[in-house]
Amino acid sequence: MNYIEIVNDAIQYIEFNLHRKLCLEELAFRYYISPMHFYRIFRAATNQTVKSYILGRKLSEAAIALRATDRNITDIAFQYGFNSHEQFTRDFKKMFRVTPSRYRKDNIQVSLMDRLDIVERDFKNANRDIIINYCCRDIKEIKLLGKEMLFHPEITCELEEAIRKGYEFEEEYFIKGTAGRLFNVMRIYISDDPLVSCFSGIPAEEYIGDTSSLEDRIIPGSKFAVFRYPDITGLIFHTIREDLYRWLCVTNLTLNNAIDIDMFTLRTKDYERTRNHFLYVPIL
């Protein structure tokens, strides 16, 4: 099994056993690896710990039961492996900022943890840890022609609209056009409500046609760390953000903030065959 297969199997096992106590050692034993190695694999693939994921799933399923039934709170607590009403209430309040009884009585809305859907990607060992796989590459300046979009990645309608416009640009200028490469250059403005600027573009030297409706953008020459992800980057924004955060912490590499981009993606004409979607992050 590769790392993704191990974690997907572990998630399924957790789902089947939410009614009882589960521990790191039990899960690791299923795959004949050490608890610490399994801990690192799970954290790398999910960006959370085994303990926090199991507890979050138990509490989320218990919350659904509280809302859907009139069963006693203690019975629900025992059903999901909690030792007592007190322990259940303490963990429930810590996660959802409300007690189980008030959640049920006042019909309060909380953010539940769904079963994880793991993004397929490659990993590597580094500094006694497991991180997203990457390589380093120096690239020369690239002049692009394209269009810019602004959106909040956590707002579904804005993300979907940005993806739709990205598809339209890709169809017109890449799939049906003469360019052999498609770039999406991103600048992320971090706050409590992140905003993303995404410039979809093709190399100027590869475009034949009217440029009056297109804007110019330069990708400066720099050293980049390169990662491979599947499908549409915007749909897995949260996974990428957490992957990059851990990658920086483990490798001690430094981002190149002197250039006016945070990252860009690259897709070539053979994407439909290879499913290779590359992410470039500028580093020093």
From TrEMBL:
**InterPro entries reported for this sequence:** Homeodomain-like_sf, HTH_AraC, HTH_AraC-typ_CS, MarA-like, Tscrpt_reg_AraC-type_HTH
**Family annotation (Gene3D superfamilies):** Homeodomain-like
Report the GO molecular function annotations: DNA-binding transcription factor activity; sequence-specific DNA binding
HTH araC/xylS-type domain ranges (all copies): 8-106
Q: Per UniProt, which keywords does this protein have?
A: DNA-binding, Transcription, Transcription regulation
By its UniProt entry, which SMART domains does this protein fall under?
Answer: HTH_ARAC
Checking Pfam families in the record gives: HTH_18
Protein name as it appears in the record: DNA-binding domain-containing protein, AraC-type
